[in-house]
Amino acid sequence: EPTVRTELMEQIPPIAIFLQESRPKFPTAFFEYLMPIVVRYLTDVNNQVRKAGQEALLILLEQDLVAQSDIENKVCPILLDLSAPDSDDEYKVEAVNIICKMASMLSRTTVEHMLLPRFCELCSDGKLFQVRKICAANFGDICNAVGQEATERLLIPKFFELCSDSVWGMRKACAECFMAVSYTTSPEVRRSKLSPLFISLISDTCRWVRQAAFQSLGPFISTFANPSSAGLYIREDGTLSIRPPAQDVNSNPCQPSNNITVISSSANAA
């Protein structure tokens, strides 16, 4: 029964945490018994079971309970198969979604060598606009996961494609994550490539795209600032924040000591 398999998946994370805490007694139980179940249920015929398996996998990754070897040898191959060009549409959409979500939890080497080539292919998927939409919405997170060199070499050309996509929702998603993409690039790329691209979005024929671009204008401009003088920085959660100068904090007892959140790069990414 699918409901039984779904319930089982919901119990996997707490069992895995228990086994991790009792590892001297159960040194290999998770890797031998539980991890294979999670991987198998990623391809279950029932979509609710697959969803429960995906959620369980993300929790396990967040808790750092999955070994690097299992990620590279068991999880990534399944996701690459499910996101292949000839894969079933529903499976492909789910696979690209989980690839984007797990990218920030994996090592840069794993993402760049195993997942980035497929992500670039999916950005150009001509069959399903839903796949391209997921790629566009999560583009900033992927850039952050792989760093500046891979972003400028492989991702920026794909970003240009998505920014000129015929579906306006794609262009809107690109406008919403523009700051996160810009922050990952060099000042020269921001000036010579991203600035003209942003102008095209702010002049888009669709008012929803223009509106999203105008909302991202301030955050995009902030990426040109010198962090040492402006105090702007990006936190790990993708939030653009400003740190008050130390002398101002000391001289004004009313000055808040906490960082002031300006805008979140992923606020409208859904």
Automatic annotation (TrEMBL):
<dbReference type="InterPro" id="IPR021133">
    <property type="entry name" value="HEAT_type_2"/>
</dbReference>
<dbReference type="InterPro" id="IPR000357">
    <property type="entry name" value="HEAT"/>
</dbReference>
<keyword id="KW-0677">Repeat</keyword>
<dbReference type="InterPro" id="IPR051023">
    <property type="entry name" value="PP2A_Regulatory_Subunit_A"/>
</dbReference>
<dbReference type="InterPro" id="IPR011989">
    <property type="entry name" value="ARM-like"/>
</dbReference>
<feature type="repeat" description="HEAT">
    <location>
        <begin position="115"/>
        <end position="154"/>
    </location>
</feature>
<protein>
    <submittedName>
        <fullName>PP4R1 phosphatase</fullName>
    </submittedName>
</protein>
<dbReference type="GO" id="GO:0005737">
    <property type="term" value="C:cytoplasm"/>
</dbReference>
<dbReference type="GO" id="GO:0019888">
    <property type="term" value="F:protein phosphatase regulator activity"/>
</dbReference>
<dbReference type="Pfam" id="PF02985">
    <property type="entry name" value="HEAT"/>
</dbReference>
<dbReference type="InterPro" id="IPR016024">
    <property type="entry name" value="ARM-type_fold"/>
</dbReference>
